[in-house]
Predict the 3D structure of the following.
Amino acid sequence: MEGQRSLDQLFDELLIQRKIFNNKEVLRDHYTPSLLPHRDRQIDELATILVSVVKGETPSNIFIYGKTGTGKTAVTIHVGEALVRKVGGCCYIRPYGTKLEIKRPEIPIPVWFIYTNCEIVDTQYRLLAKLAEYMGQSVPLTGWPTDKVYESFVRALDKEERLVIVVLDEIDRLLKKGSDSVLYNLTRINSDLKRAKVSIIGISNDLNFVEFLDPRVRSSLGEEELVFPPYYAQQLVDILSHRAEEAFFDNALDLGVIPLCAAFAAQEHGDARRALDFLRIAGEIAERDRASRVTEKHVRIAKNRIEQDRVTEVIKTFPTQSKFVLFAILLLEKYNASAITTGETYNVYKELCRQSKMDILTQRRVSDIISEMDMMGIVNATVVSKGRYGRTKEIRLGVPISQVKNVLEKHHKIERISNFVPPIQRKLI
DNA sequence: TGTCCACTGGAAGGGAGGGCTT
DNA sequence: AAGCCCTCCCTTCCAGTGGACA
């Protein structure tokens, strides 16, 4: 009898659980919704520029700015896909994924809409190889001279009459990797083509990116510019409400949940992607708690967890040398060094390497590693001048010391030296 | 006002590792 | 197998710098 009752309870609980998510996928990053609230103007503008395709003209190159999670990618894909459906042609939307082919014999020039994310395809060679692959030309991962890859891309592209719209998402990555010459080539590619035509849509969340471009690329890429402003809290509420209708069962959310997710995300420069993460994770936590509804408490837990997971994941993937540099900073912070500078970090780092019998990198390289960690938000490094005592970076951990410690000490080499005490000046207070 | 510190950060290049062509 | 090419991680070299101090 006892057993039967508990099984009964379990079923009750499991049934309650089902009352939270209806379709979780709707809240994920890669989901392109059918409706994009508060982006009508941008959709309009983009469609207006691209519509010249239908008239057989090459649309201008377009440059799209806006911070992360402002709908740049979603809008671009949305409009691109709709265009292909309307005009006929071919659509490659995801980096390695889905191809959509629409045949419309009455339209003479088909449109190819190709989406690439330059965070993944981040060098000149890889980008050209990827584009060539979309054109049905396979190129080895490495080995060919770049100009040969370019040529084979151009040849494959020019096989038939078509208009190819190449979307380069996170285009700033190419510049950071010093691969911007590919942009120069791509913006001038039409002069190498007889039958096909290419137009480029560059997407970036770095507003300063354009300043560092070759002026010729800048003027060509920026023929049309579109700006995506951040969403404010009320707009985020609309977006979340719209998605939540599909993602959750009725009454699965407390009233305050969506406004709280929106408010948190609005604090982080109106990032809709982040807002959706808050909502999804909060739902998952509620589900695991076997709660009947998602509450504000779940959202707060979700917010902390997202931040912690990000930090843990980033540190875990550091190479050993970067982990040692970070461990040196951690020790200096732990033992209250008066000010953590590059020089001081380097001294502790060297000692840690000696104890672990590791190769010691140069200070120049360590300085770069510190800058990289600063970019990722793991540490905060500011260049300060101490007058007569030189110029250096002043470094602080950007995340809780205990969290960094937990992740680092899982590394076997660091675990062995975890009791090391650095010889440093102590703070007076 | 000039000096000088402790670096910063750009540039060039080496070499290991991956993979291609001939 | 030899000769290339590309990428990544790193070193070496060095000009440049903000501001305390003499």
Summary: The CA atoms of residues 261 and 278 of chain A lie 6 Å apart.
